[in-house]
Amino acid sequence: MTGNADLIARRERLLGRNMSLFYEEPVHLVRGEGVWLFDADGRRYLDCYNNVPHVGHCHPRVTEAIARQASTLNTHTRYLHEGILDYVERLTATFDKSLDAAILTCTGSEANDVALRMAQAVTGKTGVIATDHTYHGNTAAVSQLSTRMPPVGGFGGHVRHVPAPDSYRPLGGEPGDAFAAAFTAKVEEAIASLEQSPHGFSALIIDPFFANEGFPELPSGFLDGAVAAVRKAGGLVIADEVQPGFGRTGRHMWGHQKAGILADIVTLGKPMGNGHPIGGVVAGSETLNAFRKAFRYFNTFGGNPVSCAAAMAVLDVIESEKLIENAATVGAYAKAGLARLADKHDVIGDIRGSGLFFGAELVTDRSEKTPASDLATKVINGMRERGVLMGKLGIHQCTTKIRPPMPFTRENADVMLSTLDDVLSGL
Amino acid sequence: MTGNADLIARRERLLGRNMSLFYEEPVHLVRGEGVWLFDADGRRYLDCYNNVPHVGHCHPRVTEAIARQASTLNTHTRYLHEGILDYVERLTATFDKSLDAAILTCTGSEANDVALRMAQAVTGKTGVIATDHTYHGNTAAVSQLSTRMPPVGGFGGHVRHVPAPDSYRPLGGEPGDAFAAAFTAKVEEAIASLEQSPHGFSALIIDPFFANEGFPELPSGFLDGAVAAVRKAGGLVIADEVQPGFGRTGRHMWGHQKAGILADIVTLGKPMGNGHPIGGVVAGSETLNAFRKAFRYFNTFGGNPVSCAAAMAVLDVIESEKLIENAATVGAYAKAGLARLADKHDVIGDIRGSGLFFGAELVTDRSEKTPASDLATKVINGMRERGVLMGKLGIHQCTTKIRPPMPFTRENADVMLSTLDDVLSGL
């Protein structure tokens, strides 16, 4: 542990103070393989958190693809190269026919930064609607979508926030039609407000799975009214698939497909290259052309041959290892296990999620549904001490965030569940 | 060539129209090695353009470092890892003592996006000064620094542009004190204008080598007055080292060191990982802490172990292959060669540059210094036809952009020079 104290001191000196670090006792990692991570003392951790190593830490097919392409050629898109064309062709084939072209970037933040400007190019307006507990990335423009902290110089005034849907405490009373109608009404209000402002209305940007908001269980058709309102006002729907994308939620490749809506622009990030920095924006070619006409855009590293090789290998592995099916079956198994734990532990107020993105909302009082955020922190740290890595999130920061690499097995789920049982019993 | 037509059509369909592509007859690359690139027909091109593959295309030490780390561990900075600490320690050791900490990003654009907010955090103001022919990246915030095209919704009003220094046609008459004084006066005017605006003055952002502006030959101390004016007004100096950094200009590791100024914030990009997507912001820890206090910032891929391994290998190769010294000697040799060509070809109006970033400004009339932009395009395409890749840039877009990988040799320079002689003779 002296080693960690030294590392933490060096980190503060070299990277600055207030740089976020997980757990009361941070983990010093040196190796990863599949769903496992190993620290400097050789201790093994079950990774129930990281979605970036989507097909598993250090998957050999991805690392071999990277090594092969990095030693063959790595340039930019101002020369012709087949790698980016083959990848974008295969990627867009997983979307609705109307989403047939893409711009590749290096991060999901860059992708959302471009997506906002695409909507501006199409509509000639700049106003955006987002949910009030969202996060879409770290650029100056995209940070304006967060409610967290006003930037120096203040918010731009072009963003309206609507309440994030919360199926555990639904707006409009019980889950069902009233819940969806209440969300639609909030979106309509925000559109009207933007239309009355100098900014006008360009887009609604949502993670269709509402991951950061605590992945509420939404009734079928929940977003239909909001999407219709956006289209009626001439705006675009941007689906941020950085978290639910690439089959994470089981059965569907994309979160907006699961939600049953059609997006005009889709943004991709984290899992796309299994950790290699690549992101992207998928849209119809008309939308892309409008963007390229209104804004000059070139991204030096975006769509380079190595990034494309990494991303192509990720698609290969998802398919050959049937990882979407695995997410559906193992996710359902793990959720059922959480339900059994709820019979035993009153602190579990709600269980939600889909595929390999699920968790339990912790409460101090089930009838009042009082959020137990400090308790969630305790649970996360207790799990880490016992060798299982997970996080917490949600509107009240009291929902466990279980989002493991996609090759997660039933046996892995059993380890997570028995450890959680143990931690909850010790509270 | 049918192959290229097919690729171009696929490209337009999958990546959108108006995506920039080099040369009248684009090059379809399949392999790179050192300073050489190879197309699909097996034809070899001497790369006199690409600075991203800084230590040479597919350098084995870099690709091996990437392969090794990618198959060992690739996670984010919310866990402890020594790779990022070792790299930042070694990187910051190449700067003035006052620049002792860093934030790692994935691109130079992300780095400049952060740098602008760092200056905002320190000063509480948002106004920025840039030159009128610059380019600092592609995010929405950073694009505001370009004069090229007004974005949808208009420019933010917080940017003031000063005329880029042009040593061939100097403001204030002859190169010398009047030239520098004229630049200083423009910066002082811009500061006053921002101070009178609601934005206030936060920073001057410059590439200290003024690469995109045509790398003018600046007298020693040229920037001293401007920097003093910035400091007097409480603003920060941001040095964008994406192009001159990592020893490119010969003798100095950083462009601001060559210019003899001290920067408050330094941004890094392109050459940092030899093509692997990594960028960064180097600053004093007080500045970093102010940023982290005023803005929440986390970059998922930024500073991941693989990126750091790639970047560390780049520093290793720069040192072990003495590439900075090579840039100085081969650059001087090539510039002398260009001077000999100028005796023969009247179209060469001026020869400028430093280390392995140099070129000739082409004019239709030496006495009038009339920019020959179309001719420059012709030259670039003629060079490409003869197997030498270069570009053009500058205020008048008539300066050849010669910026090869750093292991460029005298023999490579001879090939470039004789080909250029040939092309110029055929005009």
TrEMBL record, chains A, B:
Membrane-spanning segments: none
Keyword list, A-Z: Aminotransferase, Plasmid, Pyridoxal phosphate, Transferase
GO MF annotation: an example: transaminase activity
Cofactor names: pyridoxal 5'-phosphate
PROSITE patterns in the cross-refs: AA_TRANSFER_CLASS_3
Stated family: Belongs to the class-III pyridoxal-phosphate-dependent aminotransferase family.
Matches recorded under PANTHER family: ALANINE--GLYOXYLATE AMINOTRANSFERASE 2-LIKE, PTHR45688
The protein's name in its UniProt record: Aminotransferase class III-fold pyridoxal phosphate-dependent enzyme
UniProt organism field: Ensifer adhaerens
